[in-house]
Amino acid sequence: MQEIARGDKEALAALYQAYFRRLAALLYPLLGHASTVEDVIQEGFIKLWHKAHTWQPQRGNGEAWMIALFRHLALDQLRSGKRRTAVSLQSEQEDVAMEDKVVFDAPAPGFPHERERIWHCLNQLEAQSRAAILLSYTQGYSHEELSQHFATPLGTLKSWVRRGMEKLRQCLCH
Question: What is the pTM (predicted TM-score) of this model?
Answer without folding.
Answer: 0.54
